């Protein structure tokens, strides 16, 4: 009996040690979101309009997307399969389907290899490394998105290498298909990207066959409750296709454990009829200042976001309630996001 008891204790101890050493290998996560949107200074009927930025642009009660992310992490390698369903997901993969006539639900699909503690290789389709905001609403503070995010890349398909140069410095180098051509390469051209990171601040560069973009993304904890995010970018389209430039600040203040308040203040300018704002002067130039005030209230895994937004353009890019041209647009959004 003593031998049996001793062997049993050793087995239990070994099993406990193995469980402590074992890390989770397979995960399922994601989010579901829906919203209500109404113009304050413009119609909400068949003449309803919205800012020229992406997502959260449908009138009345509207659907965002269901996002399901499957991940597997082995000792040295793993994969991510990120699937999206709904209007926001469709807008996110606007350059697809290229191959499947029935539609494409892939937001990200890639495999990676941890070559060493400091080098990781990733191949497949992954969301862009440029910009402060992302496609998933659960990872953004503001529910509607900025002009800078909307007219930069959404996704890349290719091969990238991430290097941890030190505790503070990181470097990414990559080669991709043409931007947002996510399923395969129909052009035979390739884009090249690089990212240099230092303590949460990132300088990004993308050389695409049709444009070049330089982007800075970062932020600072000014106190335990106060955070300031920063994004600035410049993009130039080849063959006089226009340019855009802009900057956005994201001050966010945690008023309690469950409620935070954040403001996105953005300036965005374009030249040579780039076409993001919706109207331009005789030279094809235009600019817009967009102020977005968002509240974020959390109940378990549910986040409720009321949002007021004012877009003020240099040209008459909007209309008012009398259907006359207007340089400004006020709107309201109430979003519900459940993350799992």
UniProtKB/TrEMBL annotation:
Keyword field contains Transferase: no
- Pfam families per UniProt: BBP2 (PF07642)
* Signal peptide region: 1-18
Q: Which keywords does this chain's UniProt record carry?
A: Signal
Which named protein is this?
A: Porin
InterPro entries named in the record: BBP2 (IPR011486), Porin_dom_sf (IPR023614)
Tree of life domain: Bacteria
Q: Would the keyword Signal be found if you checked this record's keyword annotation?
A: yes
Instruction: Name its species.
Output: Neotamlana laminarinivorans
């Amino acid at each position: 009996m003593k031998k049996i008891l001793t062997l049993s204790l050793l087995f239990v101890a070994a099993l406990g040690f193995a469980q402590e050493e074992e890390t989770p290998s397979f995960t399922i996560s994601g989010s579901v979101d829906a919203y209500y949107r109404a113009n304050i200074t413009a119609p909400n009927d068949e003449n309803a309009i919205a800012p020229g930025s992406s997502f959260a642009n449908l009138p009345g009660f509207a659907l965002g997307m269901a996002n399901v992310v499957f991940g597997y992490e082995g000792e040295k390698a793993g994969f991510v399969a990120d699937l999206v369903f709904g209007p926001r997901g469709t807008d996110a993969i606007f350059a697809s389907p290229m191959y499947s006539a029935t539609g494409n639900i892939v937001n990200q699909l890639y495999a990676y290899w941890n070559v060493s503690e400091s080098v990781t290789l990733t191949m497949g389709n992954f969301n862009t490394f440029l910009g402060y905001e992302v496609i998933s609403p659960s990872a953004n503070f503001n529910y509607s998105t900025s002009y800078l995010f909307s007219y930069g890349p959404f996704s890349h398909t290719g091969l990238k290498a991430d290097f941890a140069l030190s505790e503070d410095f990181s470097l990414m180098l990559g080669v991709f298909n043409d931007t947002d051509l996510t399923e395969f390469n129909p052009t035979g051209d390739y884009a090249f990207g690089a990212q240099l990171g230092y303590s949460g601040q990132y300088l990004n560069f993308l050389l695409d066959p049709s444009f070049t973009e330089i982007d800075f993304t970062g932020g600072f904890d000014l106190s335990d409750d106060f955070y300031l995010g920063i994004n600035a970018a410049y993009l130039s389209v080849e063959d006089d296709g226009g340019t855009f430039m802009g900057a956005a600040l994201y001050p966010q203040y945690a008023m309690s454990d469950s409620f935070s308040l954040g403001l996105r203040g953005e300036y965005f300018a374009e030249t040579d009829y780039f076409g993001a704002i919706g109207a331009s002067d005789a030279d094809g130039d235009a600019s817009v200042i967009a102020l977005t005030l968002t509240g974020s209230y959390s109940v378990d895994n549910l986040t409720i976001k009321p949002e007021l937004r004012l877009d003020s353009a240099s040209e008459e890019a909007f209309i008012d309630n009398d259907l006359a041209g207007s340089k400004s647009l006020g709107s309201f959004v109430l979003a519900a996001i459940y993350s799992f």
